[in-house]
Amino acid sequence: AWQGLRAVFTSRYLLGISAFVLILAVLVTFLYFTRLAMVAALGEDTDLRTTILARIDLITQITTLLVQLVVTGHLMKRLGVPVTLALLPLTVILGFVGLAIAGTLAALVVFEAVFRAVQRAVMRPARETLFTVVSREDKYKAKAAIDTFVYRTGDVVGAWTEGLLGWLGMGLAGLASLAVPLAVLWGALGIWLGRTQRRMAGERRA
Question: Taking the alpha carbons of 23, 28, 33, 34 in that order, is the dihedral positive or negative?
Answer without folding.
Answer: positive
